[in-house]
Amino acid sequence: MLKIDDMTMKFGGVIACNKFNANIEKGQVVGLIGPNGAGKTTVFNVVTGVYKPTEGQVIFNPKEGEEYLLTGLSPDEIAKLGVCRTFQNIRLFKELSVLDNVFIGNHLRIKSNVVSSILRLPSYRVEEKEMYEKSLYLLEKVGLKDSMDEKAYSLPYGMQRRLEIARALATEPKLLLLDEPAAGMNPQETRELMDFIQEIKEEFDLTIFLIEHHMEVVMGICEEILVLDHGVLIAQGNPEEIQEDQRVIEAYLGVE
Amino acid sequence: MGNLNFLQHLANGISLGSLYALIAIGYTMVYGILRLINFAHGDIFMLGAYITYYGILFTSIPWWLVFIFASIFTGFIGLLLEKIAYRPLRESPRITILISAIGASFFLQNFGIVVFGGRPKAFPVPNILNKVIRLGGVSVGIVTFVIPTVTIILLLGLTYFITKTKTGMAMRALSKDYETASLMGIDINRIISITFFIGSFLAAVGGVMWGTKYPQLMPLMGVMPGLKCFIAAVIGGIGNITGAVIGGFILGLGEILLIAFLPNLTGYRDAFAFVLLIIILLVKPTGLMGEKITEKV
Amino acid sequence: MKDKNRFNNISLIIIVATIVGLFIANRTLDDYKLRIINLCGIYITLGLSMNLINGFTGLFSLGHAGFMAIGAYTVAILTMPVPMKEMNFFMKPMVPFLANLEWSFLPALLMAGIMAGIFGFLIGAPVLRLTDDYLAIATLGFAEIIRVVFTNTQSITNGALGLKGIPNNTNVWWSWGIGLLTIGFMVFLMDGSYGKAFKAIREDEIAARSMGINLFKHKVMSFTFGSFLAGIGGGLLAALLGTIDPNMFRITLTFNILLIVVLGGLGSIKGSVISAIIVTVMMEALRFLDESINLGFVQLKGVPGMRMVVFSIILMVVVIFRKEGLLKES
């Protein structure tokens, strides 16, 4: 599904990521962990095209025989290929309604042109109706249907995170990148979130790559875990292996 | 064109460039700290010229003292402008504060029309500055030399202030990293006020000298130089003082030499700066001396 | 759905009332008052066109006067009768190709929009890669370049002398007809998927991009539509005033429209419409500030420029104390 080859990202003299490698299989839930400032979000930014890596490349193959080089593409092109993300610091369209936020997620798949949208031609109306229905379905899925007319900023924090996921799902991704989905959630919400991730993964046939600090989330739902420290991949394996890995423990406890 | 003629144009270009540089510094300093185009800066320049005009006309203070007092007084007007039009909006979206800047500019221009009258006024140039000297066949007004000299002195003073004094260093820190600097206990309001004072003071000096070189005052006289000097700041790399000076000289020299070499294009003089701006923005958006800023995601 | 029907009914009532109102106004009012009503209609179009770019898409463009100039000159050149052109171009004859053109108003007006739209597209393509402040100054620069070019192309625009005797084709039906069409255009555009994408760009560019919205394409689209409408507005204005010259299209004109947009609220269609009317009427009503009036027993001396002082103070008070605009309910 996703292959990151020897990716290095430098900002001026600072190396945020050094020769990072990853290989994510279709249908997996893969976690990316590491101490603060380890370069996790940088990996996401490179995959989604926000940054162009200094070296290395990212390859995306959504299905057998289809392969795309993501490196060098712009974020919107990458989203169109089926890679979508959420943000660590929540980036909703704040002043717009909850429904519109999800609706806009559909926009990249629109076939009608702008003129038929202004003239409200039948072809556009059909398409718009489908987009609305899909948005409503997704809102129901994340439990936000009742607040669809509220403005996005007025939602409580946990709900905003869910709305971001709904918006990302509206783009019909094959690979979903979640940047700290459980941040700021209480244990109850966290457990719900874990179930929710499993559920959407099954329903939408997703592959999920997530960054998370809540260890119970990572250990609970990830099949494969990558550990990043100071921009370098220091360990890789299933939850049991990672929990016993000496280097991971050192990285987290700061032992020299 | 003869060599002598060329020297004359060069001298004119340098003095126009010095004026642009002085005004551009104000733009760049304010932008460096607040990320705001102070659209009213050109009108502050206009006020500087008018205040001097009235100072000379209605007081018996020696002209050079009037020049200094008027510039300082205008500096305080700039400081006041920031307090009224920008400070309340510091946490607002960028577009709001830009609109406020435009409103302030608009206000000052029309205030000028109301108070000073719409008709041009002749700037009372002191006789000593009106003298023309002949240098090996080239006749050049003394002002043409005075302007770059004053500019250089002010620039040296400013450089000293920014690199050697505590306030100047705080100013640079604020412009490098606003958030960190504000956490370090720097009194932001004070620094911003001082920045506006210095910027407006320099613009006023520019306005006074503009009056001695082109002795016709109009309430809208600040609009074009204002825009051009912002462009000068962008060309040099906005936020960078040296860049603003370089940009000012490029623009001033370029404008004068363009007319000198291609008299057919005289009518397009005012478009020159804008064309240059657009080329720079497309080729090197950060300007000649600017640094690249990457957005945080 | 019920809501939508009710909305349609209300808009129908408003449209009919406007038409009836215009009909009565056209019959009963004098030329001066009709001119103000015309201006209101034109400023609705202009205000909305700027709001599309600045308020809905969040691009800070200050190039409106330039696009209006293109529209105004297009209409003037295309509709002026041949002998009138000869009279105007006494300094230097007009290029023969343009001198012999004489179109009727509708195609000329469309051409005004198309020309402005083309320029918007050509200018937008390079400068829309820039962000707020740089975009503002670059668009402002382009507007100035257009004005300087128009001042110097003597054989096409008659340079600084301007053009006089442009046929007065604009009447209340034209100005308000186009105004209403523009309102409809904006309502449908902003309610649809593309309009929502514009708003998404305004809200958060990075998120919009990550949701697959091609920023550049959508920005150019919004900018081109906005300049098209500005060109039409400029064309209507030329045919209303009958006289144009390059100095009309200074930055001040852009600021006037910005005032309408800000007072009405960035991103509010209703606000722009109401504010266009209020600002236009106020501009006229406050004219006494500039001119002296004789009250019979006492002569009040007007001060030129006072009107604009009052206006700029209003603009600043609004941005400082009511950021959402005067008219937008919070």
Automatic annotation (TrEMBL), chain B:
Belongs to the binding-protein-dependent transport system permease family. LivHM subfamily. Keywords: Amino-acid transport, Cell inner membrane, Cell membrane, Membrane, Transmembrane, Transmembrane helix, Transport. Its main location: membrane. InterPro entries: ABC_transp_permease, BCAA_transport_permease. Signal peptide: none annotated. GO terms for cellular component: plasma membrane. The chain crosses the membrane at residues 6-29, 62-81, 93-118, 138-162, 191-211, 271-290. Pfam families: BPD_transp_2. It is found in: Cell membrane. This is Leucine/isoleucine/valine transporter subunit membrane component of ABC superfamily. CDD domains: TM_PBP1_LivH_like (cd06582). One of its GO terms (biological process) is L-isoleucine import across plasma membrane. One of its GO terms (molecular function) is L-valine transmembrane transporter activity. It is a multi-pass membrane protein.
From TrEMBL, chain C:
The chain crosses the membrane at residues 6-24, 36-53, 59-82, 103-128, 171-190, 220-241, 253-283, 303-321. Pfam families: BPD_transp_2 (PF02653). InterPro entries: ABC_transp_permease, LivM-like. One of its GO terms (cellular component) is plasma membrane. It is found in: Cell membrane. CDD domains: TM_PBP1_LivM_like. Keywords: Cell membrane, Membrane, Transmembrane, Transmembrane helix. It is a multi-pass membrane protein. GO terms for molecular function: branched-chain amino acid transmembrane transporter activity. It comes from the Bacteria. This is Inner-membrane translocator. It comes from [Clostridium] ultunense Esp. The lineage of its organism: Bacteria, Bacillati, Bacillota, Tissierellia, Tissierellales.
